Amino acid sequence: MASLVASKEKMFITQTKLLNEVTWKTVMQIAKKHAKSAAQHLSRLSGAIGPERIYADWQWWILAALPFPHLVRVLDCFFHEGIKVFYRVALAILILFHKHSTNQNSEWYAEATKNGVDHAVDKFCRNMPASPTKLLRTAFSIRALSSQYISRVFIKTEMTLKSKQVITGSRLVRSRSSDNLPTSQSQVNIQMMSHTLTIREGSHSPGPRALSMGVYPIQAIKSQILDQSELFTLWSWLPVRITMYQPVLLYTTEEHGCSLTTFYVRVEHHEPTLLMIKTCNNEVFGAYCSTRWFERNQKDERGNRQAYFGTGETFLFSLYPERAKYPWVGCSIGADGKGEEKVSHASELFMAADSKMITIGGGEGQAIWMDENIRFGKTDRCSTFNNPPLCPSGDFEIRVLEVYGFSGA
User: Fold this and answer.
1) Percent of the chain surpassing pLDDT 70
2) Model confidence pLDDT, tens digit, residues 163-211
3) Which residues form the TLDc domain (predicted)?
């Protein structure tokens, strides 16, 4: 458990009630597309209780109900490949439950109609009629269920729920998984209190407070680009979970020189990263990059390098002369799956890189492009973020580039 929580490579465990709701709504959305018949069957059986209450306990199907031999096999895969294994196994459970409860004379149909489908699914998992091998074979035979698709649905759902919370203050659906988790609002309250304390302490602070207190840790940043006011603005735009980690300066042209090779050596294995650019005309802008730059070396099924990579959590920002955040255009589309086709391929070009250049944002233009010497760049409107050029001229010369990672993220 300690290694899971402290994992730097992958985040396995959701730590707020909001993210817990995001996970089960993600399961519900991908089930509607990749286990359509099973999802419809579950919806019909759920009756007045509604399918939401059933999906809210999806992690308990796996971690609490599955027989031990099944759980061991599932966790082996989970430790190796991450949370996507749980999503696949949850869909496999739905598919197998559908198969065994379609017949109205079956014991599982009778169980669902008598005691409720939530109890029936739980009991089905405890008495899993399929072998561990059959369960995993069902899970991994679901076609076209890519990690990128799961990530996209997750991010859309998270953005939608966050916006609903801000607008309506809506309450989250309770599940066994969420009872003892801190709310996102409690994290925000901790951060704002820490923010206030940091300002009051000023330069006479006796030392950094423990990270577990939710410290707003930007006081440790000695940036050549941003002052404290601009840093506070930028930190307010970051995902909440990221603001809890200590920022670490990975690369700066002031100290490490102007070389894309050096940039990759120092930055490519960190995820996420924050790029900040100051031009020779004193414009300040940059990007929050959700995916490690090493992904530029990943190859597709045909053995070709990926042209673009990244997720919809990536965003652009400008701090001078204008202050603005430019999120992915897909964030404005609902997480109910109905708008899936409205996001064109040209609007999903987040990050690209090779030995000659770095690009952030694409489609009808490049939001940020830098050359191999990290000296010259250009900025245009792009489809991915629907941003204006980040500096008036469109072309810029880099005075300082700083890249930050997040310790423990």
Assistant:
1) 79
2) 665 544 445 555 555 555 555 555 555 455 444 444 444 434 343 333 3
3) 224-407
**Stretches in the chain below the pLDDT threshold 50:** 167-170, 190, 193-215, 335-341
**289 phi, psi to nearest 5 deg:** -110, 115
In terms of Cβ atoms closer than 10 Å to its own Cβ (0-12, 13-18, 19+), residue 203 is exposed
Token digits of residue 173: 């659906």
Positive or negative torsion for Cα 226, 232, 234, 239 = positive
- CA separation for the pair 317, 299 (Å, rounded): 30
Q: Dihedral sign, CA of 240, 243, 249, 253? A: positive
Encode 291-320: b = buried (16+ Cβ within 10 Å), e = exposed.
bbbebbeeeeeeeeeeebbbbbbbbbbbbb
Q: Is the pTM of this model over 0.70?
A: no
Q: Are 380 and 246 in contact (CB under 8 A)?
A: no
| Residues 35, 94: Cα–Cα separation, whole Å | 8
